[in-house]
Amino acid sequence: MTPAQDPAQPDAAKPATDALVLRYLDFVRFEKRLAARTLALYAEDLHKLQAFATEAGQPLTQVQSAHVRRWIAGMHSQGRSPRGIALILSGWRGFYHWLAQERLIAHNPVEGVRAPKAAKPLPKALPVDAAMQLADFHKPAGAAGDEAGWQELRDALLVELLYGAGLRVGELVGLDAVASPEALGWLDLGDAQAHVLGKGSKRRSVPLGSQAIAAARAWLAARATLPVAARTPALLIGRNGTRLTAQSIWQKLRLRSQQAGLATPVHPHMLRHSYASHMLQSSGDLRAVQELLGHANISTTQIYTRLDFQHLAKVYDAAHPRAHRRDGDKPED
């Protein structure tokens, strides 16, 4: 068995490691006591730096910010992810910070250099038909006092408030059955509004649709018959009378989406995304959707315009005759 390769030392296929790199790797190994895996990653990133500098004909101590930016652009064009580039830059930045401390360079050429921005992933939203399939799903309900019966009424309301009102799961958890000075949130069925405490301890009011109001009335009537309901002011409770947690809501929604026949397991924020996307598709009013969601910055809401464009693109692909022309087809004269 061959001994493990020292991460601070290059293998035979690599050029000799620069003496400054070796000194720095010894520094982080003994002074920072880095784990072997972390040390190996540092060494790999610095070998990349040395290779770039050698190709450019620059000693490591004479590398400039323009060189670093050019190398970043090259890595990005070759498919390196923004996150991967950011990690490499972090390693290089630490190396040049050490060189500056050792008074071997006048300034850090990596300072102020940033990795390319990573594309923001689109929020996952259900198609309208799938969201309606989940919202319309109802298991056979028993009597109001029957456990299966009252749980069904509670879970139906849970879906209505997540999809029909776009509440965050934390806002949903905080709802009480009646308004009070201590309540974080409550439903005002007479005024058709949900009053919630959102991010940053900001209160907002969200309109409730007729389906949500009907579901809330049915659940409150069933809840009033439960002896355990007297133990807590919470609107949504479990069999022991305790307030439902965010985790339990995740689990119940995942199970309900499976029972409703949806191919994709649904989580609470997916219903909030669906609420926002479907509202934007129907209204096109970005400012109104921002207010309904409680976003402090409209740039947060604008991500849903990308979902809306995806929807329009799918409609185009499905309906427009020009969308199906094969690359090899000749245009008409």
From TrEMBL:
Listed GO CC annotations? cytoplasm
Residues folding into a coiled coil are: none
- Is NADP set as a keyword in this record? no
Predominant location: cytoplasm
- Pfam families in the record: Phage_int_SAM_1, Phage_integrase
The reply on keyword Cell cycle is yes
Q: Which UniProt keywords apply?
A: Cell cycle, Cell division, Chromosome partition, Cytoplasm, DNA integration, DNA recombination, DNA-binding
Q: Subcellular localization, per the record? A: Cytoplasm
Could you tell me which InterPro entries the record lists for this protein?
A: CB, DNA_brk_join_enz, Integrase-like_cat_sf, Integrase_catalytic, Integrase_recombinase_N, Integrase_SAM-like_N, Tyrosine_recombinase_XerC/XerD, Tyrosine_recombinase_XerCD
Q: Which residues form the active site?
A: R168, K199, H269, R272, H295, Y304 (o-(3'-phospho-dna)-tyrosine intermediate)
User: Which part of the chain is the Core-binding (CB) domain?
Assistant: 15-100
Q: Could you tell me which PROSITE patterns the record lists for this protein?
A: CB (PS51900), TYR_RECOMBINASE (PS51898)
Give this protein's Gene Ontology molecular function annotations: DNA binding; tyrosine-based site-specific recombinase activity
All copies of the Tyr recombinase domain together span 121-317
Q: Which biological process, per GO, is one annotated for this protein?
A: DNA transposition
Question: What does this chain do?
Answer: Site-specific tyrosine recombinase, which acts by catalyzing the cutting and rejoining of the recombining DNA molecules. The XerC-XerD complex is essential to convert dimers of the bacterial chromosome into monomers to permit their segregation at cell division. It also contributes to the segregational stability of plasmids.
The family line of this record is: Belongs to the 'phage' integrase family. XerC subfamily.
Q: How does it assemble?
A: Forms a cyclic heterotetrameric complex composed of two molecules of XerC and two molecules of XerD.
Name recorded for this polypeptide: Tyrosine recombinase XerC
